[in-house]
Amino acid sequence: MELPDGKTLRAGDHVSRNSQEEADIIFLRNQEASPLLQLPGEIRNKIYQYALGGHHIYLDEHQPSFKRLVIRRAEGKRISKDGLFALGYTCRQTHSESAILLFSLNEFIGYFWSTFEIQRCELFSPSQRNAIRNISVTICCFRHFKGSETIIVDKFGGLVRITLVATAVDVADTLEPGSECQPYTTDGRFHPISTSSATEPPVSSIDVDVDMSEAWEYAWETEHQDDDEDGQEQIEDEDGEGRKLVRCCSMARPQVPPFLKVLPTTQRFVTIHDYITQAHA
């Protein structure tokens, strides 16, 4: 929206008192003159659904903020936030009628498998979060998401569907940037490279350091540290300076090995498929 002083008011912007007063004048004028608002409410709702629905809204993985939302049409084309939110900035009536539809008619995509990831959704108000019907959860592996579904349901009271999307593994022709890639899995079949040796020369086992395994024990303790103490079992820490949670909610503290040993399953050597399925399971 362009204000009389030449400034442009965009979705998510904060405005000064003077600019707000000028915007109020425009809102009122638009409301009185809008052909859209002369239509029956049922027709307006159809127009709102057509204009605002059917999009994928991506939450930035590292810097969650309104201005870093990425919005794409279902076919993948990126669209302007200013264009999508402009309808709500026409006047107060169109805002009150359409604003919440942005959340109920679109699918939100992000990494929602931990409390930390859920916190980025605090940029939405409770009513906006409760209006969200569809969430697509991108996960690296199932264990990241395990135990977090309750957190998601608590935060998004109106959820109808949660879609789990595993990150893809592609096979590149070369290591050069921009090299053509092929999917590792197609219709349940694996790429021919899956049976090749993971190393040259072939080996019978591979010891792998997995960053997430090192963090898994800490993540479990963080998840359970605020649970009812009656269900917790603690022992004295190794350094004698505190207590260590070893059992909670009928679950023992995960014992993480110093490394992951990848072993062959179908050949005498570790294949690429062995490595992918064991190191990323």
From TrEMBL:
Composition skew (Acidic residues), residue ranges: 224-240
Name of one Pfam family that matches: DUF7730
Sequence segments annotated as region (Disordered): 222-241
Domain DUF7730: 30-137
Domain of life the protein comes from: Eukaryota
InterPro entries cross-referenced by the UniProt entry: DUF7730
Protein name (Swiss-Prot/TrEMBL): DUF7730 domain-containing protein
Organism: Alternaria arborescens
